[in-house]
Specification:
Layout (H helix, E strand, L loop, with lengths): L1 H13 L8 E4 L5 H24 L5 H4 L1 H6 L3 H26 L6 H19 L2 H14 L5 E4 L4
Antiparallel strand pairs: 1-2
Helix pairs in contact: 2-5, 2-6, 5-6
């Protein structure tokens, strides 16, 4: 009887208890600042891809106009978007540098503030109907996921 209980006891100890596992919950209503951050990254990435395509001597127009075509923007509207995305890249890069040097009190709050301002600039730069169309595109095309992790109870 003792031979059977010892391996069983060791097996039970080795298994993590349910209360020791973090609880992970997917957040369904992702805030706009998170969706737009992901969208701005996508626009920036496509611009870098277009630059690389051009540097190889290839036609970059298809890559460079991807978001414009998909979102139904005019050339001027796409240019406004790209200007704001360049600002996003500069400001988030500066935030990262400041955070690494300890010069930022709350990176999430600063980031949220940057994104709120840039979304406002984008909204002001585009006609209301166009912004609504772009906003619908950002929401529909986003693959961003957001989770909340609750640490295990001690």
């Amino acid at each position: 009887m003792q031979k059977i209980l010892l391996p069983l006891f060791l097996t039970v100890i080795a298994l993590p208890a349910p209360c020791q596992q973090p609880r992970v919950t997917e957040i369904k209503d992702i805030p706009d600042y998170v969706l737009y951050d992901s969208f701005f990254f996508r626009v920036s990435w496509l611009e870098e891809l277009a630059d690389n395509t051009r540097s190889r001597g290839e036609d970059d127009s298809s890559v460079r106009s991807t978001i414009q075509r998909q979102a139904g923007l005019t050339l001027d509207e796409a240019a406004s978007l790209k200007r704001i995305v360049r600002d996003w890249k500069a400001r988030t890069s500066a935030l990262k540098t400041a955070a690494q040097s300890g010069g930022v009190k709350s990176v999430p709050e600063e980031h949220r503030q940057i994104m709120t301002e840039l979304i406002g600039e984008l909204k002001a730069a585009l006609p209301a109907k166009t912004f609504a169309q772009l906003d619908a595109f950002v929401h529909a095309s986003s693959t961003a996921k957001m989770i909340h992790v609750t640490p295990p109870a001690k």
